[in-house]
Amino acid sequence: MFVSSSPVGRFRFPAAVALTAGVLLSVSACGSIDPLASGGSSDAPSDTIVVGSAGFAESEIIAEIYAQALEAQGVTVSKQLNIGQRDVYLAALQDGSIDLIPEYSGNLLQYYAADSTARSSDEVFDALSSALPDGFRVLERAAAEDKDSYNVTAEFAEKHTLNTLSDLANLDETFVVAGNPELAERPYGPRGLTDVYGVKANLMTFSPINDSGGPLTVSALIDGTVQVADIFSTTPAIAENKFVTLADPKNLILPQNVLPLINSDSASDLVVKTLNNVSAQLTTEDLIDLNARNQGDEKAAPAALAQDWLTEKGLLSS
Amino acid sequence: MYSLDAAGSLMNYLWDSILWIFTPAHLSGPTGVWARLGEHLFYSGLSVLCAAVIATPLGLFIGHTGRGRALVIWLTGALRALPTLGLVTLLALLLGLGLLAPLLALTVLAIPPLLAGAYAGVESVDPAASGAARAVGMTEWQILTRVEVPLALPLLVGGFRSAFLQVVATATVAAFVPLGGLGRFIFDGLPVRDYPQMLAGAILVIVLALVSDAVFALIQRIVTPRGVRVARSGQDHAEILR
Amino acid sequence: MEWIFANAENIWRLTRDHFALSLPPIVLGLVFSLPLGWLAHRYRWSRGALLTVSGLLYTIPSLPLFVILPVLIGTKILDPINVVIALTLYAVALLLRTVTEAFDSVSPEVRQSSLAVGFSPLQRVTRVELPLALPIVVAGLRVVSASTVSLVSVGSLIGVSSLGDLFTSGFQRDFPTEIMVGIGGTILIAGLLDLLIVLGGRWCTPWMRPARS
């Protein structure tokens, strides 16, 4: 197969292995890109706050806002963004991989107390504070809200006179609901539509689309692949495409105020004060604007958006 | 102690997911195990077929003429490095929802092993055999179809074997964009950390891969012409190029 | 284009992370599969078992493996080590077969003659069999490297940062450029590693310079 002129004595393979091992070690020694060290807080000094975010852009933007606001106050921060869905990042908070993450009040409450009867923003916040497991704590909520919302196209709404979720119960043809896969398991998912609004389960099928109400969900709604889509209420595409958001008079979907969920040990006075200042200024309109800049033509990065917002609100000067 | 714990919890999870699979409610219906298994086979088969339409003639041509070999080796290397997750998300944005995007991504994945199997197969044919065929007056086409392809069949099928295996395992990643198949169990279980469901998806993929591997091994044995033993070196060749 | 410049820092960070996640599985895969492959080549009893297990490993889909590993070995769920371990398993699974066959390809005559000139068994392996098997091993390592670099991106789905982050983020906000940058970066890393492996292979086997016929 190949010409071999006495390899013996000229073989450099052991040297090559040693060299590679050396390179590997030096790469690992360079802490910033060390894949073998844990990415969590175990190697970070205890006064470092690891900020996490869920796996969608808005959470990332708010996490950047938290991180940069804290940094401006001299707090040491590291970031572990884009983690995934709630079940995953809460586990990460539990095992100490992260210390702080932006959350939404209603969904968080339903996660810990699925049978809670709290409905108003205040009730939800109070119930949440007591439902949290030991070691976790939520700080002041922002006025800003972003919740799951069920949307239909204007034509579909007109054709079937749909205004609220209860109107869905009057549909007498089969229809498809789109949402992230986990919606199927959530109390406010298709099951909730049936239980709370009497939507006929035999007419409704669920189509999981893995983009958190992003472009594929939107295009599926437009081209009629699905008839109802769960899209976050701060998504600019809702207004752009003149979708009709079905009203939720029975509060199937709870109020979803943005708030910081933090590991109690990390919640020093300075941290609490800084994050409360952020929450005091964050509005729903801000979220829609930030999302529009992130998803629209500008495609601005979360870090840059966070910096702009903090500068505008005067939160970067200590 | 520690490793015992790990082994124990693995066993528990495995048991849970086997129970999960055989729960009647999970077996039947349009989102049940049988339906997903069928979808998975359908996507995998279809994309390997599409890839074969492109790769097999090309590979045979290269193997027969020896032309473009360097280019193809370079190309298959580059194709291998294409991340399926990136490809499938990109194609989904460009082509929209539906079967087309994941199908294309999986087809790209299946091309390198098929191509390698085809040209390595033809190349592995003893030049004496094709030379003899030429001497008795066969046309190049006849040499290819009557001598080289039959002799190359074991390696050709070997290419299908590894292509199908890779596609079956990777079709799960393709379920990141809306798609049925066994990847659904994995992606539906992931956000809610439903381990039994995720593992059930993984187990089904593994079983499917093993069964199809065995089927291909059988086909490989059947198509090996009598009197021809696959030369070891030829086999090596295909494995490496895989 | 503008987006690339505006986000150069972030892209560079993800590229470094991606590279750092790719390298250990490739090197560790080689380190583990060499002795195992020799074992499978040398002893009939180990051959069936090793090759079957590695074949089985390779069929496990990557995503569930990433998720279940921390449960099994007690690591933190966001720890990049989960991805490194999983990809090392794949690398071994892919390489083991190649290494075994590479050792198989060393002709018995050569082995006999090395015995005749008085090499000890260890010398025979390290100074005769391994060097002769190396070209095939290198070819296998190139495949492993390409597939590892491509699989690292799946880690993004479980919160381990790499160029794969650009795929999920680009997907969620309908931004093909971002995905293309991620794909381009992945191919660049794969190309770089491939080059290193080829050069390293040549450097190790100077007698191969005349090249294969």
From TrEMBL, chain A:
One of its GO terms (cellular component) is ATP-binding cassette (ABC) transporter complex. It comes from the Bacteria. One of its GO terms (molecular function) is transmembrane transporter activity. Keywords: Signal. It holds the Pfam family OpuAC. Coiled coil: none annotated. Transmembrane segments: none annotated. Residues 1-29 form the signal peptide. Residues 47-312 form the ABC-type glycine betaine transport system substrate-binding domain. InterPro entries: ABC_Gly_betaine_transp_sub-bd (IPR007210). This is Osmoprotectant transport system substrate-binding protein.
From TrEMBL, chain B:
It comes from the Bacteria. The keyword Transmembrane applies. Its main location: membrane. The keyword Cell wall biogenesis/degradation does not apply. InterPro entries: ABC_transp_perm/SBD, MetI-like, MetI-like_sf. It is a multi-pass membrane protein. It is found in: Cell membrane; Membrane. One of its GO terms (cellular component) is plasma membrane. Keywords: Membrane, Transmembrane, Transmembrane helix, Transport. Residues 37-216 form the ABC transmembrane type-1 domain. GO terms for biological process: glycine betaine transport; transmembrane transport. The chain crosses the membrane at residues 41-63, 84-111, 163-187, 199-219. Gene3D superfamilies: MetI-like. Belongs to the binding-protein-dependent transport system permease family. This is Osmoprotectant transport system permease protein. The lineage of its organism: Bacteria, Bacillati, Actinomycetota, Actinomycetes, Micrococcales.
Automatic annotation (TrEMBL), chain C:
InterPro entries: ABC_transp_perm/SBD, MetI-like, MetI-like_sf. The keyword Repeat does not apply. GO terms for biological process: glycine betaine transport; transmembrane transport. It comes from the Bacteria. Keywords: Membrane, Transmembrane, Transmembrane helix, Transport. The chain crosses the membrane at residues 20-41, 48-71, 77-96, 179-199. Pfam families: BPD_transp_1. It is found in: Cell membrane; Membrane. GO terms for cellular component: plasma membrane. PANTHER family: GLYCINE BETAINE/L-PROLINE TRANSPORT SYSTEM PERMEASE PROTEIN PROW, OSMOPROTECTANT IMPORT PERMEASE PROTEIN OSMW. Belongs to the binding-protein-dependent transport system permease family. This is Osmoprotectant transport system permease protein. It comes from Klugiella xanthotipulae. The lineage of its organism: Bacteria, Bacillati, Actinomycetota, Actinomycetes, Micrococcales.
